[in-house]
Write a structure and sequence with these properties.
Two copies of one chain form a homodimer.
Chain A: E1 6-7, E2 13-15, H1 21-39, H2 51-58, H3 73-89, H4 93-109, H5 118-122, H6 132-135, H7 137-155, H8 159-174, H9 191-202, H10 205-217, H11 224-231, H12 267-284, H13 287-303, H14 335-351, H15 355-369, E3 387-388, H16 390-395, H17 415-424, E4 431-433, E5 437-440, E6 446-452, E7 455-463, E8 470-476, E9 481-488, E10 497-500, E11 503-504, E12 510-512, E13 515-522, E14 527-531, E15 536-541, E16 551-556, E17 559-564, H18 565-568, E18 575-578, E19 584-588, E20 595-605, E21 616-618, E22 623-632, E23 644-645, E24 648-651
Parallel strand pairs in A: 5-9, 18-24
Antiparallel strand pairs in A: 1-4, 2-6, 3-23, 4-5, 6-7, 7-8, 8-14, 9-13, 10-11, 10-14, 12-13, 15-16, 16-17, 16-24, 17-22, 17-23, 18-20, 19-20, 20-22
Helix pairs in contact in A: 1-3, 1-17, 2-3, 2-4, 3-7, 3-17, 7-8, 7-9, 9-10, 9-12, 10-12, 12-13, 12-14, 14-15
Chain lengths: 653, 653
Amino acid sequence: MLQTTRPVPLKQVSINDSYWSPYEKLVRQTVIPYQWDALNDRIPDAEPSYAIRNFRIAAGLEKGEYGGMVFQDSDLAKWLEAVGYWLTGHDDPELEQIADAAIDLVGQAQQEDGYLGTFFTIKEPGKRWTNLHDCHELYCAGHMMEAAVAYYKGTGKRKLLDIMCRFADHIDDTFGPEPGKIQGYDGHQEIELALVKLYQVTGNEKYLKLSQFFIDERGKAPNFLVQEWESRGRTSHWAQGITGKPNVEYNQAHLPVREQKAATGHAVRAVYMYTAMADLAAQNGDQSLLDACRTLWDNMVSRQMYITGGIGSTHHGEAFSFDYDLPNDTVYAETCASIGLIFFAHRMLQIEPDGQYADVLERALYNNVVGSMSSDGKHFFYVNPLEVWPQASEKNPGLHHVKPIRQKWFACSCCPPNLARLLTSLGEYIYSSSDNAVYTHLYMGSQAQIDVGGASVGLKQETNYPWDGEVKLTLALEEAKRFKLALRIPAWCEGAAIRINGESKQEELVMEKGYAVVELNWQDGDVIQLTLPLEVQIIEANPQVRANAGKAALQRGPVVYCLEEADNGSVLASVSVSTETEFKARFDGELLGGGIVIEGEGYKDSDSGWQGGELYRPIRRQAGRIALRAIPYSMWGNRGKGEMTVWFRTRSS
Amino acid sequence: MLQTTRPVPLKQVSINDSYWSPYEKLVRQTVIPYQWDALNDRIPDAEPSYAIRNFRIAAGLEKGEYGGMVFQDSDLAKWLEAVGYWLTGHDDPELEQIADAAIDLVGQAQQEDGYLGTFFTIKEPGKRWTNLHDCHELYCAGHMMEAAVAYYKGTGKRKLLDIMCRFADHIDDTFGPEPGKIQGYDGHQEIELALVKLYQVTGNEKYLKLSQFFIDERGKAPNFLVQEWESRGRTSHWAQGITGKPNVEYNQAHLPVREQKAATGHAVRAVYMYTAMADLAAQNGDQSLLDACRTLWDNMVSRQMYITGGIGSTHHGEAFSFDYDLPNDTVYAETCASIGLIFFAHRMLQIEPDGQYADVLERALYNNVVGSMSSDGKHFFYVNPLEVWPQASEKNPGLHHVKPIRQKWFACSCCPPNLARLLTSLGEYIYSSSDNAVYTHLYMGSQAQIDVGGASVGLKQETNYPWDGEVKLTLALEEAKRFKLALRIPAWCEGAAIRINGESKQEELVMEKGYAVVELNWQDGDVIQLTLPLEVQIIEANPQVRANAGKAALQRGPVVYCLEEADNGSVLASVSVSTETEFKARFDGELLGGGIVIEGEGYKDSDSGWQGGELYRPIRRQAGRIALRAIPYSMWGNRGKGEMTVWFRTRSS
């Protein structure tokens, strides 16, 4: 085991937070029922999901054709997983009954031999495992395994877990190094991380070994996905006729995983794979796999990540492009990819409590991820742009993928249920512990019961983070205990201060990789007060990022800001800001449930003299002063269609 | 007739110019032979053209399959047209023999009933005229008609003209308002302008009427292209199976042409159509058609044109997107589209000598068009970007269409032969005349014999334009004649001065729509000296053009400049320039055959402190001074792969 700490189990943490509790409520009251309606094709004017219908047909309860994407089963899986997390901390018999019935349906759709997958059951019964490149069979299996684990942990009910163990056994009989088995892997990684979870909850090492097999096999020469395409007759699920040789870099199968040096290909596939690699490195003490994780992490976060925590800069293949290529307008930055980035960061954080992982996790969470959902919980972004010109989204086909307002549901609707499962499991991300330490990674009001070297430490966190940087932690101990309390000091923070029982403890504090560590013999009722000064920061990007040359963005704490047309008029590209500007942060209770807005003086290029309709003229550009107002990026696009930008021009002074 | 002036026929103009004569030479010595080799599939490592081979197969001289694009015939047509123009001013028996043989081959490929088109002759003999939307039959016919007219005018040889009249007669029997004929038009406009040329050279009004029919019919409801798709069984030449309803805005067939208000759809189709509309408006005195031309012109040049004279801002459909959407990196700006823009401008200029038409013509010619060819005459740009980051072109699929260096030949190789035919007919664009006036639209060393109200006026032009603004015009007259001499004063020019026989004539000069008009009783040997002060201008774009916000470009006379990595290092986005900079223009004989470069002081953002690999930090951007060097845009990409930008950041001072 390379793991230094363990996450505190979800059932030992409850969130009670002015920022996050409304999201939890929204997820339970709106997102989960809305998505259930979506899975049942009951959302008017939205694309039907067909997910439940497919299971009913596969179960023999209904007649009909398969509908939706080949990976439609995974939408139900993610929904069940979210429900599992919700039920971990809440009694909710009505919801549990619906979920139990859905699980019964899944069971009825399972085949005699353990196989589960409605597409091949309904539509192409003879063709199981013949197109792993395109058809997401193992991907869907992985998601249902995650659901099974979550539901078991949340409710104690084994039914879905047993279903998925049967399926996992069937998969283990089908894949592996032994003769007669398929020496291959899925086109879309996901089962690898799910099998680790299945192992962790069942203790069955077969699942861990199978996961390791999939990871180790990937990218070996000759390439499995290419060979499979050859033996299939060079066809594709996604196109008619003979197709070109698959570009397996898209699937991160171009090289053995340990030889991959840069994040490449489809971003969600990439981060799901990296997550599994970190899991396996931790479980098996696999140092070479851990080295690969670190290399890929470094490349991704220091060369290919948007300031919002978005990853995957091109919509062509929903993919990474290359180092420092971070266009703000043609961007992809898929919601699911940032969620996967959070998974990866969370795993790395357990291997080694290093603030850089939590910093990225927090960046993705407070910006790209939270921003993907509307304040009504019923509309979602799949693509999370950093610059929007609504007319261009409509009229320039290169920007059609960038939607200026959140959409109801998608034909490929991976993101909304992914968001739901993240938000319902957020409690798992706040703390972790080891035999002699408690780590606080995230700041949100919560109550946790944490195992530290045999003792159970109660930890109550009170804060108005991210709007306010004051955090109060209160310990509840049956008896005094000596351990390290490690509090993350975010990289953006300068001048953090800690008081213990009202007294400053700067001198007893040791900084270790982004954590302020205080080792004391803690007493019941000890109060730790952390102050993280939240200043408005004007941020610049590495000059290699050509898209942001001469520009800056605003950040306050973990929250990235944006300018919207609703506050600043059009044309936002005409706005510029002096780098000396003194911005003020102010709480605005009127703004979408309330949040800190940033206000200051800016400049706007005059458009006078341009009415004649000419396009070009000798320069006589003049700028006038305007009052600027920036809102949290996560809140953009909730006030109608308009321009938005995260990065704005700076004025040299 | 709405026409005010007539172009001076090509055979009455010869170019002898330090800037353009090398291009003429390059076209004759390299481009024409190289393209002939290309048409014959003799270029190593380049995509085969199949053009000649298709004609040989259609003529029964060879067995084989049709090769290349469905419109491959047009490449030979444009080549023949270029040769026709070349032969207009030059004795060149060797080339003429090759062209005559090619024309013989075209004749042999013509069918009994007059039909000409190798695709349907070889590949789908029963399917003529069943897919006008996709298959370019009339488009190819149009190009061969243009070739026939050029070759006839250049050599006096009627063979190709007769072939094409037979084909035009066949088309006239096939299309028209009469019962039993197809009431339709081509998916790619071209034949409309060609039929006007055929009418002008034959006097056969049938051809003019047919052109008018195609233009008037276009966009009427119910839509022909949609109906055709229905009756074809909803198939497409470009895709397998059943296809979606064609988006006829792409073909400018969404509305009757007189109701179209904005340039839209495929840019080349658009400008070829506008050219024909202007031709028909002029020929038939059609005021409503002229009004439509003006509306479309205004929209295009004042809202949808790059500073280089490029049009069509998206590669999706090689099309216009919408007003002020002029991205510099994802740009299309196809060479052929700018050539078509020149055609349209030239027609409008004959209807009404207004400097705005010649200004745009000149902008497109000296920048986008000339820049599309390498200095060796063997490599071409199809797409003409205003900003290039070579790595992005390679690794970001959204920029794959933007090539950082010119390519040998293209599978769809419309642009190189289009360029050849423009450069060989450039003499036609310099002058025009009416009964009492001679207009000089372009400044290039040349000798012309111009008809003015029955008299033949010899006009010799000497200049080093565009590097130098001094132009000397010498008149040769058999006897004194009173007429107006109108000299274009470009919109970018301030302080133009005219001397006649050494004396300043500012007071006798009347400005009329961008032309300095002097009416005198001219004598043999009169010398007119025009001085167009060429200053380096720092140009800004309309603030609605978001892509150029806070940026500027350099222009000197008609020549737009760019920064290249070869001169200014990488990262070009880090460069900024004060708007007060005093730039110096200097002739550099070493630069690709010689040209004026622009030099001055700029700033470059320091990259110090960024080596640690972080992506974002609180701003502390600092810029150091650097020596900047800009070269003419038309010369970019000739010194290896590197970054290039036309627009650079300005510093507020």
